[in-house]
Each structure stands twice: as C-alpha cells, then as structure tokens.
Design a protein that fits this description.
By secondary structure, the protein is mainly α. It folds into 3 domains: 109 residues, no CATH class; 125 residues, no CATH class; 270 residues, no CATH class. It contains 25 helices and 3 strands. Strands 1-3-2 form a 3-stranded mixed sheet, covered by helices on one side. The protein is globular, with a radius of gyration of 25 Å.
Length: 597
C-alpha cells in the first residue's frame, strides 16, 4: 500500500522536465480507455448519465459474483498501470497514473472488509435508487423507451441480488447498526404505496417514431414491468423488516465489525486522503470547537436578541449560548410555513450568489444547475440537502436538492451557507469545472476525493463573507453554526467509531455545541454511524485550503490574486490533500518569482 506522503513525493511536478516517451504515453491512454470501457460496461446507466455510449438496455449486476469479478478486474488493471514506466510520462501523465493507481489500491484493500454487503440504510439503497431510475436518462425516441422497458425487466433480478448480499452480510456479521435502520422500512412502504409512478411516466409521453398502437402496447408492458418490481420490492421489504433489521448488529462502532480497527483506519485514509489517526482527528476537532465557540459568542452579542434584554449580558458563556440556541429553535420568524416559500428562498439566494462569481473566479463552468425538493418518500430520513452532478455532454444540469420535510426544523439562518455549499461556489462549481477540464481522460475528470470535494464546499461557505451575504448576524451565526457542525463531526465520528462513544453521547455533544435542530442532529449522528469516516473529510479539507490561502496571502502580499488562487486550487480537479498542498506550494513559489507589477 502506498502511503500518502510517499504518493505526494512521487507526484512532485518540481522534478526536472523530461521528454515524454510516446510508447509509455500510448500505453497509459490504452490502459485508461480499458478501465473506462470496463466501468461503463458494468454500470451502463452511469455511463449514459455522463454522456457516453453504453448498452442502454442493461443495469448493473449486483450479485456477489459480480462484485468479486470487479475486484479481480481492479487487480489486473492495477498491474497493467504499474507495468508502465511513470518516469517516461509527462507531468500530467504521472499525476493521472498515480491517482488512478491509488484509487484502485484503496478499492482492492477495502474490498476485503465487505463494504459491498452494506446494501441499504437511511441514506441509500434500492428503495431510493429504483424510484429515481429515470432521472438524467434520455427519453426522446422510441429506442429510449424500449431501453427503459428492458431495464425495468431486469430490476427484480437485481433486487434478488441485493437480498443475497444482505443475507451474506448477516452471515459474516457485516451489517449497519440496527439503531440507524428504523426509517428504512417506511421508505419501502412509501415507494410501494406510490406504485412507482416515476417509472411509468415515460410510457405516457409521446414519441415521434411511435404509432399510437405501439405506444399503447409498450405502456401495457411497462405497467407489467413496474408491477413485477413492486412485487419484488415487497419481498425485499418483508425480508428487511422481519430478518435483516432484527439480525443487524446492536453496536454502532466501526471497530466492532470484523477487522474493524483496520477497516476504520482504511475508511479515514479514503475519506480524508491523509494518514491522520482517529486520536489526532479527535483532538483537532475539539480545538476547532473551542475556537468557533468563541466566535459564536461574539456574534450572539451583535444580535437584537442580546441587545434587547440587558440581563443577558450577565449570563455566563454556557448559559448565554444555551438561551440563544433555545430562542433560535423556537422563534417562528426563523422558519417558513410552506415548502414552496422555502424553495423560493433557496432559488433567490442562488441567483444572488451567481452575480458574485466572476469577482472570485477567472474560470467558470458552462454547465448550469437547478434547485429542487428532495423527493417526499425519502425526505423524512434524508439530510438537509445534497447535490446531484449533471453532465454537459449528456445534456443534464446539476441539481441542488433541499429538504422541505418538517419545516420547523429548517431554519432560515442556515440557508446561505447551505446554498453556497451545495450549489455555487461549492459542489456544482467545483464538480462542473472538473468535468470540463480540457484534455483529461474521463477517469480523471470524474474522480472525487471526499476531503477535497467536501473541503472545498465548506471553504465556499466562508466565501459568503466576501460576497457580503453575512451582514445579518443571524446569517453569520448560521455560517459559524455550519463550521461548528463540521468540527463536531471530527469529534463524534472518531468518538463513536474508535473511542467508545455511545450514540446518545454524540447527540448530546452536538446539542451542546450547535444550534442544529433536534431532528437534524439525530439524522446527522445516524449518518456518521452508517458512513464511517466520511464526515471527517469536510473540516480537514477546508482547513487545508484555508491554510494554503493564508500561506499565499502572507507570501505574496499585494500580489495575491484571489481569482488566480481559486483557479489554481480547482485547476487539476479533485486531488488528495497531500498532493494539493505540494501543487499549491509550487504555485505560490511561481507567483512569488514573478516581477512585481
């Protein structure tokens, strides 16, 4: 296994330039093409979403045998890449080859732990994926509809494969904690009650190359296929309810799984792209919580709530914070009463932010984005929001999804940082720019290192200061709330998975240090339980990018160009943090050597 510091050194582009060897470059291109072709064959729907040609009538084989086959293919792909002389490649070739090798290595290492057996949970699974099968798929010609019908007919088999993996997970003791599964069966019920209408809807459209009789025949076949899926969903629902949930483990820590300590260490390497230990991450989180708490108290003292009652000035810090949080959670002025008003608020914010982007970035993506509600059937157990990437090549925009369930838990003061994070200049801008990188292989353009992607989005929340979006102290408190939330993640993720914390202790810590609603706190803690390590990437990535910016500002002084800095950070797509630090260090050196204007 290649350690991250060694990887960063191997990727150093500061070495003396060499003339690339045409044979090595051609071999690398062929190897990348072969990996991409294999991936597209295994998951043709994802290939189509990204604008590539694939067998539109198939869906992914999710059997255990197929998972094993993909893992063995990764071993062969890695061996082929290692056989290429990296020293004979140009700088970009060395970077791309090393990153793809790292990705394959981590995937192979992780496969032995059995993560492929964790089929479902509150944030994902067939009960959420199947109703959304039509999203970002083309429906313009008769062949598109026939391909959709072919895919639907394969779904019952895929559901049986999911059940096979769940059964194997029970046998091996690899299951999610039972504590986070109560909301899964209601999701199944909601999907079944909805009769899979999104899957039937394409058969109701008109197509220029279909006669009325042909359309009617396909509609009948489509309804039969959807009914067959519903029947198999009911079987899987009953298995989950009667066998899987009762058989799931009653512990929450990743270290309680087979090879759990090694599994959690692996998860942290994947999600943070660093070699930090759980103890180091935990201590960093506690330090950040302390720092941000001080900034929060300063903002509280700027609010009309604090100034409106002189007695509040005599409260100690803990009492003041608790009283202010209670006010935020209960005052109706901070909450919408209609879902459409919340969505309008997000759309208005998005357009206000768009106007600031040219002042912060020299390069902007061509791909647009939209704002829509999280589907109602999955909203009760979903997070506050998420981003779904689009594809300019496929003609799909990106989507910022916002949760309108339980409006009394969706405060207005969270809306600015959330929009900055999920839409622009956060996820949409970063992901869309990566997709549009010139002369990059799709394998490289579509890589998403969690610490970079989420770290950038958290950094983007702070850019709202420069946009003037936090003039209202309540909005500014919302920014700090979100930064505190991500710092608490470092504490509770490592606490629960490595240091013996209970679920309730994690909830209590979040409640004491954030103004998140009770519902959001419980959803978030369950998310960390079900996705070990992932939540640690946000703050580590953001601290890395902020540190690089501070280093550039100190070194360059008046010559520091924020637009150029942002373009440089995003200019190679997502990167491991160690590689980003090395690359930006050289960028700062190059800027410093330039003649002062």
């Amino acid at each position: 296994m290649v350690s991250l510091p060694i990887l960063a050194a191997a990727l150093s582009l500061a070495q003396a330039p060499v003339a690339p060897d045409a044979d090595a470059t051609a071999r690398l291109q062929r190897a990348f093409d072969a990996i991409q072709a294999f991936n597209d064959s295994e998951d043709p729907m994802q290939a189509i979403r990204m604008g590539r040609v694939a067998d539109a009538g198939r869906i992914m084989d999710r059997s255990i045998a197929a998972c094993d086959r993909r893992n063995e293919a990764a071993r062969r792909q890695l061996a082929e890449l290692r056989s290429i002389d990296h020293a004979a490649l140009d700088e970009r070739g060395r970077l791309d080859a090393a990153l793809i090798e790292r990705d394959l290595e981590l995937g192979i290492e992780g496969y032995r732990y059995g993560g492929h057996l964790l089929v479902l949970g509150p944030l994902g699974g067939p009960q959420q994926e199947i109703p959304q099968m039509t999203e970002q798929m083309p429906f313009t010609r008769a062949d598109d509809l026939r391909a959709h019908l072919s895919r639907l007919r394969l779904v019952p088999q895929q559901l049986r494969q999911d059940r096979e993996r769940l059964q194997e997970g029970l046998r091996r003791g690899v299951t999610p904690p039972g504590a986070i599964l109560p909301g899964v069966v209601p999701q199944f019920n909601a999907v079944i009650e909805g009769r899979l209408q999104p899957l039937r809807e394409p058969f109701e459209r008109t197509y220029p190359d279909l006669t009325a009789a042909q359309a009617a025949a396909l509609r009948t076949e489509g309804n039969d296929a959807a009914d067959a899926i519903l029947a198999e969903l009911a079987v899987l629902r009953d298995f989950v309810r009667d066998t899987y949930v009762p058989g799931a483990r009653d512990t929450i820590a990743c270290i309680d799984l087979p090879e759990g300590r090694a599994w959690y260490a692996h998860a942290l390497r994947v999600q943070t792209t660093t070699d930090r230990t759980p103890e180091e991450i935990h201590a960093l989180g506690l330090a950040e919580v302390k720092r941000i708490r001080g900034e929060m108290l300063q903002v509280i003292r700027r609010t009309d709530w604090f100034r409106g009652d002189a007695s509040r000035g005599s409260l100690d810090e803990d009492a003041l914070f608790a009283a202010f949080v209670k006010f935020l959670r209960t005052d109706p002025r901070f909450y919408f009463t209609r879902p459409e008003d919340l969505m309008s608020g997000y759309r208005d914010l998005a357009k206000r932010i768009d106007a600031h982007l040219p002042g912060l970035f020299g390069t902007l993506p061509r791909l647009t984005y939209g704002v829509r509600e999280i589907p109602r059937f999955m909203a009760p157990s979903q997070t506050t929001a998420y981003y779904q990437p689009g594809s300019l090549k496929a003609g799909n925009c990106g989507w910022f999804y916002a949760n309108t369930f339980a409006l009394d838990q969706r405060p207005r003061y969270e809306m600015v940082p959330l929009t900055l994070h999920e839409a622009v200049p956060g996820h949409h801008l970063q992901v869309a720019l990566a997709q549009e990188l010139p002369e990059r292989h799709p394998l490289r353009r579509e890589m998403g290192f969690n610490a970079f992607v989420e770290g950038w989005a958290l950094y983007a929340e702070r850019l709202g200061i420069e946009m003037g979006l936090y003039a209202d102290p309540y909005d500014d408190f919302g920014r700090l709330l979100y930064e505190m939330w991500r710092s608490c993640r470092l504490v509770v993720d490592t606490g629960m998975h490595a240091l013996g914390w209970s679920r309730q202790r994690a909830i209590d810590f979040m409640r004491a240090n954030t103004a998140l609603s009770e519902l959001n706190i419980e959803r978030e803690v369950d998310r960390y339980i079900g996705w070990p390590g992932q939540a640690c990437g946000y703050k580590l990535g953001e601290l890395c990018i902020r540190g690089l910016r501070q280093a550039a500002e100190r070194r360059l002084g008046a010559r520091f160009d924020l637009r150029a800095f942002h373009d440089a950070v995003l200019g190679e797509g997502a990167l491991p943090l160690t590689v980003l630090e090395e690359r930006m260090g050289r960028w700062i050196d190059a800027q410093a050597r330039r003649t002062t204007p």
